[in-house]
Amino acid sequence: MVQGPPRSASQQTISAEACRPAVWDEALARFGTRQPADVLAEAIYYAEDGVPVSRDLANNLQAGDERLSAYPSTMAAFMPGGAPPVRGAILRQPDLAWTLRTMARDGFRAFYEGEIAERIADFWQANGGVISRDDLGAYRAEVLEPLQTTYREHTVFEQPPVSQGHILLQALNLVETLDLAGMGHLSTEALHVCLEANKLAHADKNKYTTDPAWHALPEGLLSKQYAADRSLLIRMDQALEFPPPAGEPPAAQDTTYLCCVDGEGNAVSYIQSIFHGFGCGVVADGTGVVLNNRACGFSLDPEHANFLQPGKKTVHTLNTYMIFKDGRPVIVGGTPGGDVQVQTNLQVITGLLDFGRDPQQAVEDPRWSRGEARNVSLEARAPKSTFEGLRERGHDVQTISHYGQGGRAQVILIAEDGVLAAGSDPRCDGCALAF
């Protein structure tokens, strides 16, 4: 999601699912001032000369040992010595450096139409896959209008289908019907309301979310009246089972996240994903490119909105947000985390707007996530009374470690005078930088 030109309220979502070079190409053409060779230079350096393996990467490589050793090309990329590199070891990826150098020289379309595409398609075909050179050559990024709603005198923008950004916006609409701030930060009541709002919003996903070329979201899904009607299902003394029934809107919405704001006021909220850790566990030979497994998002049930059909895009979990006030961006943020993304984003946004938390406090606050039935995971740092209160309301609450929750939130707050304040989640290797 990109905001520009400076100080305007214009918003665009550039969508290319997991085919990232198409996004880079579109964003650079529309908003950039540099050439592909310039923006890829550091990535080429790190792929060629290597990077120290971080704690999280070392753990993930160790955990993914079995999948990474299934294909020689994947082993060559991530286990060059025949075993997962340990923390602090230097990991070099010369094949990936070749791919990046080729795009730096020939442009990002070389990923889809040149030798890179040939290597990917030929490898895929040779190993029983269905992707062809023609499939890659026909691919283009789409530029879409974001979804939006209002919340506490702010305008919140989110990604449209095939993403699930509407879930966050629906949850905010539901929460807005209640006095969250009056309930108290990290109180039983505040967490209960947010959990129930997420359940009700998520219940609409399986019924309505699919490739908009096949079926658009119902026009009234993000209406305040629909939220008011659905909010009547929230009982302050009792947790809903999940999933509750989907509503009927009135007629008439392995992942990396980053956000940045430059000196001219341009802002980017950016997410990319290969879905599961190391995608499908396959690296296209000679490219260093990890192939994703986003097709897991399809259903084989003919009655499901996301039923697998030729030419159809799969629904995915990726969503980012931008929040405007008085026509200017004031908050840029997001997180990895599958279905937990919209849950984490809801907690960070309400922390900022309802409870006055600064960005670092908002991403560090004790965090919950909701699972099936009435299952809730809550970090041990939350107040003891909140654990007890949620259990009294029927939530099956599991205590997890102090920073054990999923999600890796990053957020930037933009003050009216242009001063930036950032927060980076201690649950990951991320950081906040200014330069």
Task: Describe the 3D structure.
This protein is of the alpha+beta class and 435 residues long. The chain folds into two domains: 20-140, no CATH class; 146-255 and 316-424, Serum Albumin, Chain A, Domain 1 (Orthogonal Bundle), CATH 1.10.246.130. The chain is 35% helix and 18% strand. It contains 17 helices and 18 strands. The strands form five sheets. A six-stranded antiparallel sheet has the order 6-7-12-13-17-18. The protein has a five-stranded antiparallel sheet with strand order 5-2-1-9-8. Strand 14 and strand 15 form a beta hairpin. Helix 10 (165-176) crosses helix 14 and helix 10 crosses helix 15 (340-353). The longest helix has 16 residues, at 188-203. The chain is globular, with a radius of gyration of 22 Å. Mean pLDDT is 90; it is low at 5-10.
